[in-house]
Design goal:
about 90 residues, alpha+beta, Archaeosine Trna-guanine Transglycosylase, Chain: A, domain 4, 5-stranded mixed β-sheet, 2 helices, 5 strands
């Protein structure tokens, strides 16, 4: 069985809640060397979002649908919400 490729991202509560509600279907990141290194020439299966760094921080698994560039930023295309916990 192939191991899933996971992108781990931390979000502020406002953005976490909007994604969890289905209202936000793209997550944006600045085009900078840090994100270039993490995104370019890579594909992911899922995105794991956390709101904070604690062990019990709100957590969400979301399907990865791809990456594009919009308005000078990376746009991470979000798919189905697979799991939400610690809300």
């Amino acid at each position: 069985m192939t191991q899933k490729k996971i992108l781990h991202l931390t979000l502020l509560r406002k953005w976490f809640d909007l994604i969890a509600s289905g209202k936000k279907i793209k997550e944006f990141r600045e085009i900078k060397p840090y994100w270039d290194k993490r995104f370019l020439k890579k594909e992911f299966d899922e995105i794991h979002f956390k709101n904070g760094y604690s062990k019990n921080a709100p957590f969400m698994r979301v399907e990865w649908k791809g990456l594009t560039k919009e308005n000078g930023k990376y746009a991470i295309l979000l798919g189905k919400i697979l799991e939400i916990k610690n809300i």
